[in-house]
Amino acid sequence: MGNGVLENLYHVAIAVRNIDEVEKLYETALGLRVEHREVVEDQGVRTSMLVPEKGGTALELLEPLSGESPISKFLDKRGEGIHHICFLVDDIEAALDRLKRDGVKLIDETPRPGSYHSRVAFIHPKAMNGVLIELAELDKDV
Ligand code: CO
């Protein structure tokens, strides 16, 4: 059990219309490497994690699975671009408890399944100066 403190910036997520095209572009133009691809049904998205050669913060590409996906709605309204940033936490329940105690408006009161066997929760962007912030706790056993 941890105390819910934020660790490092895990990824910056970008909403895109065609994940294959963007992967190719970011690989060739930026020299990033695709580390992991996954469909997260719960969030209605295909995801791809791209990392710099020497590691560090990743880029997470998000492509909607259908018109019902929140990412699809984001693309219609705002177009492609940065969607959220994600911090790792050592204990997501403790982090959410602390935020609730502080009266911070949350999208997720309890964690839900994310990619990489993680559990994630989003803070409401209205509570964070217009930035959608995701907290992720990685499964220590994977
Ligand atoms: Co994310």
Determine the oligomeric state from the structure. Answer: single chain
Overall structural class, as computed from helix and strand content, comes to alpha+beta
Percentage beta strand: 35-45%
Write down the overall geometry.
Answer: globular
Keywords, separated by commas or semicolons:
142 residues; alpha+beta; 2,3-Dihydroxybiphenyl 1,2-Dioxygenase, domain 1; eight-stranded mixed sheet; globular; binds cobalt (II) ion
Structure description:
This protein is of the alpha+beta class. The chain has a single domain (6-138), classed as Roll (2,3-Dihydroxybiphenyl 1,2-Dioxygenase, domain 1), CATH 3.10.180.10. Helices cover 22% and strands 37% of the residues. The chain is built from 3 helices and 8 strands. The chain has an 8-stranded mixed β-sheet with strand order 2-3-4-1-5-8-7-6. The chain is globular, with a radius of gyration of 15 Å. The relative contact order is 0.21. The protein binds cobalt (II) ion.
